[in-house]
Amino acid sequence: MRLSGLSLLEQEILDEYRCLLQSLNRLSGTIGTMANQPTSQTIDSLRLLERKTGLISTLMKASVYSIVLQQELQYEDSKDTGDFTESTRQVVE
């Protein structure tokens, strides 16, 4: 919505304020909904979120460990076969 008499910059600023107002209204609604929920339900939701976050963290650690282990095995194999290159050593380090 373009208001007459405003510069382009002023219009863009007003548009950003409109977006901010919409975001704050959504946030207010969400906070109101949470405030009306029983505390135990909110705590249960947070516990579920904490478990999911812990699971994701564990999976990430396992993935990183697997990648490091594979690189070490490739390094050892290339070292044993004489196919050792500078780039292989840098990947492992």
TrEMBL record:
GO molecular function terms listed in the Swiss-Prot or TrEMBL record: microtubule plus-end binding
InterPro entries: DASH_Dad3
Keyword Cell division: yes
GO biological process, one term: cell division
Compartment(s) of residence: Chromosome, Centromere, Kinetochore; Cytoplasm, Cytoskeleton, Spindle; Nucleus
Keyword tags: Cell cycle, Cell division, Centromere, Chromosome, Chromosome partition, Cytoplasm, Cytoskeleton, Kinetochore, Microtubule, Mitosis, Nucleus
Main location (coarse class): nucleus
A Gene Ontology cellular-component term: mitotic spindle
Membership in a protein family: Belongs to the DASH complex DAD3 family.
Protein name: DASH complex subunit DAD3
Lineage of origin: Eukaryota, Fungi, Dikarya, Ascomycota, Pezizomycotina
